[in-house]
Design brief:
The complex is a heterodimer of chains A (223) and B (284).
Chain A (H helix, E strand, L loop, with lengths): L10 H4 L4 H29 L4 H15 L3 H11 L8 H27 L2 H9 L4 H31 L11 H12 L2 H29 L8
Helix pairs in contact in A: 2-3, 2-5, 3-5, 4-5, 5-7, 6-7, 7-9, 8-9
Chain B lengths: L1 H22 L4 H5 L8 H4 L6 H8 L1 E6 L2 E2 L3 E3 L5 E2 L1 H13 L2 E6 L5 H6 L5 E7 L2 H4 L2 E3 L4 E10 L14 E5 L4 H7 L3 E5 L2 H9 L5 E5 H10 L6 E18 L3 H16 L2 H9 L9
Parallel strand pairs in B: 1-5, 1-6, 9-10, 9-11
Antiparallel strand pairs in B: 2-3, 3-4, 6-12, 7-12, 8-11, 8-12
Helix pairs in contact in B: 4-11, 5-12
Classes of the chains: A mainly alpha (223), B alpha/beta (284).
Chain lengths: 223, 284
């Protein structure tokens, strides 16, 4: 065993050199998720509309974004659009991650909205609520509770996907590992360092989502 | 309560995992292989290893470069990897009496490919530096180049001391990041030289630092390359060498011998002139 070519004892020593990158990863992720939630909610409502004109753009957005890799989308936003508009690196990363996750979140919301029993809507109408009121007061609050577990899953994916921002020169965790690792030739060790960072952050995220889930008493709806 | 326990278990598991990993390489001296301290009688006597025999018996020397570093190693129109590094490798293999297997891999994959034995050597314009010497051994240098600052001609920047607080593009993993930081600039890390040239032309970075020869090549290939100019002299001279595993002493000594021959008999100079418009980069 002593013949392993790696020296993992350096890990604690290099750990602090990634603080700033971890902070950047966290920023991209949180902002990207925020944008994704907004886009996702709007798109899901458009998606379930009866009007073809409203539904069309939502379907198109989901089709394009879900059907192509995030890496390509980031490239197009940062390098491709440079011909027309100069979007800074960090902003491009947030927009890319937001648009990408918005498409997935739209489908999560649509699924949970449609999973709310028809009777709920009928009951709201019978109380004299308009369509919008029924959606806002009755359907969405219940749908949101059901969305929490799949959204938590999507947040974790978004956190890890933020590493793709490394391709558009955003010096987040992965790019930092690649820079330090090729300079000191301890690439694998540096990848282990960022692996620990990602694991720590996804663990915290898991616990937080769990807390929200508990608070909303999602389990009330089971049985 | 259950949640807290779960978190605790996770932390404990991670600690065990990291301890287990650390335990694997408790003796850094042994791993580095550069110090024969007599702990292990089988290795104590001299620098005997089978690295050279291994290559000779296999009849092939496997070396690696990124394949994305013209004119040193890159893919031509026929999708063959060619360049100064590749020709140097061919000549080394010929003198060893073996075949050359020039592989390419993303720069990220080179260090661990070498360390785990996938490659016999890195022959991809890797510069010697102190940090890398802790992990690998370098042969005698086969060429010399240096870090050059490039800016837009219309930027008004004429020397390196004007870059403070400005953004400088550097290829991820290259030693030029320290040069950029040394100028007090913000470093922006890109995938490749061509990407940075475009960003520089588009005004999204204020300058770039790369190898002088790579820059010359890139500027001559890219559209509007004549809008870019060198600013100031070389920031630093770099010595490029083959990297081998630290325990592969016999192989390194043989490679040193061959490279010195190639320096002496003009073969390296000839290869250099072929790829660099008649310029000899194999002398300091």
């Amino acid at each position: 065993m002593s013949e392993l070519p790696w020296d993992f004892t350096v890990i604690p020593f290099y750990f602090p050199r990634f603080y700033q990158a971890a902070w950047l990863t966290l920023q991209i992720t949180v902002l990207g998720i925020g944008l994704g939630l907004v886009l996702g909610l709007i798109t899901s409502l458009m998606r379930i509309s009866k009007s073809k004109i409203i539904q069309g753009p939502a379907l198109f957005y989901i089709w394009i974004i879900r059907g192509t890799p995030l890496l390509l989308q980031l490239f197009i936003i940062y390098f491709g659009l440079a011909e027309f508009i100069d979007i800074p690196r960090l902003t491009s990363a947030v927009i890319g991650l937001g648009i990408h996750n918005g498409a997935y979140m739209a489908e999560i919301f649509r699924g949970t909205i449609q999973s709310i029993d028809r009777g709920q809507r009928e009951a709201a109408y019978s109380l004299g609520m308009t369509k919008t009121q029924a959606m806002r007061r009755i359907i969405l609050p219940q749908a949101f509770k059901r969305s929490v577990p799949p959204l938590g899953n999507q947040f974790i994916i978004a956190l890890k996907d933020s590493s793709l921002a490394s391709a558009i020169a955003v010096r987040e965790l992965l790019l930092t590992a690649r820079q330090i690792g090729s300079s000191n030739l301890m690439m694998l060790e540096m990848f282990v360092v960022v692996g620990i960072y990602y694991l720590l952050m996804t663990s915290v995220l898991t616990v937080l989502v769990g807390k929200v889930e508990k608070r909303l008493k999602v389990s009330d709806y089971r049985s | 309560m259950l949640k807290k326990k779960g978190l605790l278990i996770t932390i404990v598991l991670m600690l065990i995992l990291s301890l287990a990993l650390v335990g694997c390489t408790e003796d850094p001296a042994e791993e580095n292989g550069n110090d024969v301290n007599g702990d292990d009688p089988s290795e104590a006597a001299e620098d005997v290893d089978d690295s050279l025999d291994r290559v000779l018996e296999a009849g092939v020397i496997t070396v690696v470069g990124s394949g994305d570093y013209p004119p040193f190693n890159f893919y031509d129109d026929n999708d063959d990897v060619v360049g100064f590094d590749v020709d140097t490798g061919e000549e080394i293999a010929k003198r060893l009496g073996v075949e050359l297997n020039y592989e390419t891999s993303a720069w990220d994959g080179l260090p661990d490919g070498l360390r785990t034995g996938r490659y016999d050597a890195i022959l991809g314009s890797m510069a010697i530096n102190e940090e890398r010497l802790k992990i690998v051994s370098f042969t005698t240098p086969y060429y010399y180049s240096g870090a050059q600052l490039i800016v837009r001609a219309d930027s008004g920047i004429t020397d390196t001391d004007q870059m403070e607080g400005k953004e400088i593009g550097v290829v991820t993993g290259e030693t030029f990041m320290e040069d950029a930081e040394g100028l007090g600039a913000e470093v922006v890390l890109y995938e490749g030289v061509n990407q940075i040239l475009l960003e520089l032309l588009n005004g999204r970075v204020d300058g770039m630092i790369t190898d002088r020869l790579v820059a010359l090549n890139g500027m001559s290939q890219i559209a509007d390359g004549d809008e870019l100019v060198f600013a100031g002299d070389l920031l630093r001279l770099e010595e490029m060498a083959l990297a081998v595993r630290q325990e592969d002493n016999e192989l390194r000594e043989k490679l040193d011998e061959i490279l010195e021959e190639m320096h002496a008999d003009g073969t390296l100079a000839e290869i250099s002139k072929k790829w660099h418009d008649g310029e000899d980069i194999t002398i300091k």
